[in-house]
Specification:
21 helices; globular; alpha/beta; seven-stranded mixed β-sheet; about 575 residues; about 10% strand
Amino acid sequence: MHICRHEEALFIHITPLRICAYFELFCRRSCEMDWLLVLCSLVHLFVCPFTKVEESFNLQAIHDILYHQTDIQEYDHLEFPGVVPRTFLGPLVVSVIAAPFVAVSRVLEFPKDVSLYLVRFALGALVLWPLLKLQKRIKGTLGKGTSDWFVLVTVSQFHFLFYLSRPLPNTMALPLVLFAYYYWLGQQHGKFIACSAAAILIFRGELAILLGLILLGELLTRRLSLSKTVFIAVPFGLLFLFLTVFVDSFFWQRLLWPEGEVLWYNVVLNKSGDWGTSPFLWYFYSAIPRAMGTSLALLPVGMFFERRVWPLVLPALFFVLAYSFLPHKELRFIIYVIPLLNIAAAAACSRLWENRTKGKWFALLALVAIGHLVANLVLTSFLLVVSRANYPGGEALFLLHKMEGREANVTVHIDVLAAQTGISRFGHLHNNWMYDKTENLKPGSPELRMFSHLIVEAKSKHGYNLRPYAETHEIVAHIEGFSHIRSSYNHFPPIRIKTKPCLFILKNKYLPKEPDFSFTLRKHPVESAEVLLPSATEFENRNHLDGEGLIIENSTGIPDLIENSKD
């Protein structure tokens, strides 16, 4: 009995130290933490390459700039303008960066969808650049330990890296916000104000709250004078306002300030609630916990041990509080605060790690810091698998291209669900094919019988939407999408991701010899490609309760159905 107790004590004393030693060896061999950010963001990109409706405007704009250039009449936004206009300045910058690589891809005759990866990588690089500079600034202000843990915490979480390369309006503003943080921490107030002005006036007006709170803190602590603020802010504000009005008026073919119209729509008309509402504290009890994962538990610890993170955390939390007054809420609307909150969590991890050699209990606390990373990575891996099943439209078009050869005379109609869940112009691989997204066509109508193929939403092959095609079309394939999550006690892991049929590819058995597509020439206003759509997009809203279960909204904004099962 004495030996057993001795071995138990030895296990408690040695194992945490050994684990810490292995972890330290891993960090040393990793050398530069920068590559972890790059590698993990690439994993997110390649696992989920397709995009959704919220990303549609920017992605289609980048495509049109790259492929149609000055032929504005061929641009997608003139046919599908969305609810409110968005700026072209972000897509222009991304296009300039991606253009040489896309040109090489075209010369080498790679498939067109390779350009989608190149464009997303270019956007990801735009965000990673200031993020890595911010990491270096953290190293200079809070120490190398906090800087390294900041990278580890960030790569372990799902949301920030998942959104990092996605052409959302919020992501377009993110590089400027990260640069603003970098210059703020370095007390370079002129550049901070310039980046803030560009982010607010061009991309996201609500950033005036977050960056304004930071600016207010600098004014109250007298690190910056009001006169200097006005002297810098006014000319930069006028410059960026003129730039967005000049460029976007050209692309939209009318005089406008895109972000001004968005603010009018959201704030003055208060129309954001039309796209769904959430409780006032939703960001605090749902969005932030899902974005930070288990790192959230270390946030107050970091604030306790490192008082220097208070000026970073407080503006972020007050911004979220102020933004909570808008009824429509999505996690991506507050994605800018995650780096600031992660700095506090990283400070906690750094302190726990530095004290690891002071005794066995300190070593155990250091293991908590390591263990929380493992927990985050498990959650991230799970959510990445779930997210991959949420792009049936992209998968459907990819499958159709595999089934039909390049030389085939294919005309395909893409319904709303398919268009919103992964199909973009980058997926239009063959110039001789016709890809159509005309809306409001009645199932089985003469117009739809003009197409050789249809991508149609349906719950099963016997679904109501497919009945009008029973005699005229054959089902050649179906694509499954995410349905729900089921807990099963007899399997490992005990959680299973369930899918269900959601899109069907139909082939016309009686294709007209001279099909009439004159109906596709009219313009089609569509309420998509807009930031204000609910976080649960149309596809996800169509998940149904087939039995008793608990609906949980996960960190992709997807309503998940968790069912208990003994199967």
